[in-house]
Amino acid sequence: MQKVIHYLMRQRLIVNLLVVLILMAGLFALSRTNRESIPQVNMDMVTVTTVYPGASPSDAEELISIPIEKKLRKVSDLDKVRSYNVENVSVIVVYIEDKASDKKRSYRTSRMQSIR
């Protein structure tokens, strides 16, 4: 290893050329890097979280999840509706279809249906 270091210390032109090539490769990679200030976000899933203090998972399911699920099933362009109930919390996940024509409208409708 010491022989390589001594050789490179004597061959400054090779070291300078190597440094310039590394810098050029770095600048090339930097120019090809995809940078977006506002990336496209897929809104294919909506999560509705409801907190009900003191509720057991079965109470949260009966009193919160099932009524909200029934209302959400009336919304068009929804793929599936899943609910998860733990103590004090009900989480409903709504998946919007990939082929939905207006995902933003489906998102807003599903949010409004869950609030009512």
How is the secondary structure organized here?
Elements: H1 2-10, H2 12-32, E1 45-51, H3 57-72, E2 78-86, E3 89-96, H4 103-115
Antiparallel strand pairs: 1-3, 2-3
Helix pairs in contact: 3-4
What's the short version?
By secondary structure, the chain is an alpha+beta fold.
Apparent shape:
elongated
Which stretches are low in confidence, meaning pLDDT under 50 for 5 or more residues running?
Answer: none
| Range of strand content | 15-25%
Overall pLDDT: 82
Largest sheet: 3 strands, antiparallel
Q: Using the CA coordinates, give the radius of gyration.
A: 28 Å
Portion in helices = 40-55%
- Contiguous helical run count: 4
What is the tally of beta strands? 3
Q: Output the strand order for the largest sheet.
A: 1-3-2
Distance between the termini: 74 Å
Order of SSEs, N→C? HHEHEEH
Give the helix/strand class.
Answer: alpha+beta
Question: Could you please describe the fold and organization of this structure?
Answer:
This protein is of the alpha+beta class. It has helices spanning 2-10, 12-32, 57-72, 103-115, and strands at 45-51, 78-86, 89-96. A 3-stranded antiparallel β-sheet has the order 1-3-2. Helix 3 (57-72) crosses helix 4 (103-115). The protein is elongated. The protein starts with a helix and ends with a helix. 15% of the residues are buried.
